[in-house]
């Protein structure tokens, strides 16, 4: 109550300024935390900080919404105040649209577990798109409104408009003495003459001046630099976001660092890509360097509390009976890839062949990156659609997407879908996986009612 009265006691202009600078700081922090969160390659370096940074990003987002709420009652007066300034009005509309769009999509991403994946996917797209547009705009806005640029503008203005007559009069010794000599008459005549000179000189100055002023040149240069710096990455992102043909996957296959020979021969369903091909794009996530594998050294093993532990080399592994399934892939950060056609060995088939002992209660998965692990309970692991996948859409899984062999747990968030899978171990006690130790929920069901 006290603080509210204090806030309202402030002048309107002061309150606007305060909101403006708070907004700038919050946006800066949101940008930094948001970009850090979105870089797939530094996930491992962040470790458990990732979860903290995400929480911080959410708090900042809530603060930004509170700021909009604080501004809302002032909007009419502010809008009226800037009625003569079209640029400011355009800026205001644009910034408000950005903030509201970020806030709306952000709240959806924050509440993702209570919402369907398709909505999260759209919200993530909107959130990203606004970031691609909004952050460069904010940078441009900050540069073009900075004091440095304002100074350039003032210099330009000073050059364009000649000095005011009074000032000129004082600076001209002759005029100054004239005023002193004849205080009643002379000033009028002198001012007249000076004004005429000034007007004439202004025409000459205007003719001398190039059409691009220093300030607008700097503004254009800053804008161009931003476009050059951000343009290519933005283009790649937009191409990926609208790509339903899996062209990025084709690129991963073309530049694959794995050397697995012979390549796996797809089953008819897989060769025909019964799912029609994956829709959407995977984001490449890893907590280590992306490992590369060769069929000369690659091995796969199942061991632990089983009656028949086994190890296979690539050629032997390819002889195991495979099936084909079409399923969706959901990451906990909001993105999904739909209708992937996976071909591989059903996990329950591997478990049955290994003969799980009575003491074996959990199934632990080891990545060939030697860092990432995850686990399922034995009953979860026996789900029909859990697959040790070898092909996607009829092609070998490329290194970047976890090939030659990765786990697929379609109904759980994809942090359970261990990439570069090489080992399965039956254990007695529950094991917390890489991300679970760092704050992710061990219950990863996309549909929470399954837990
Ligand atoms: N070895 C390993 N497996 C992993 C991860 C990882 O970092 N390392 N990330 C997990 C997460 S959080 C997701 S969303 C998916 C991403 O798979 P992709 O990189 O093929 O898109 O892999 C999962 N499996
Ligand atoms: Mo994920």
Automatic annotation (TrEMBL):
Keywords assigned: Membrane, Transmembrane, Transmembrane helix
InterPro entries the record matches: Di-haem_cyt_TM (IPR016174), OxRdtase_Mopterin-bd_dom (IPR000572), OxRdtase_Mopterin-bd_sf (IPR036374)
TM helices/strands, residue ranges: 21-44, 56-72, 92-112, 124-143, 217-238
Transmembrane among keywords: yes
Domain of life: Bacteria
SUPFAM superfamilies, per database record: Oxidoreductase molybdopterin-binding domain (SSF56524), Transmembrane di-heme cytochromes (SSF81342)
N-terminal signal peptide: none
Domain named Oxidoreductase molybdopterin-binding: residues: 289-435
Pfam families: Oxidored_molyb
Keyword Isomerase: no
Protein name, as recorded: Molybdopterin-dependent oxidoreductase
Organism ancestry: Bacteria, Bacillati, Bacillota, Bacilli, Bacillales
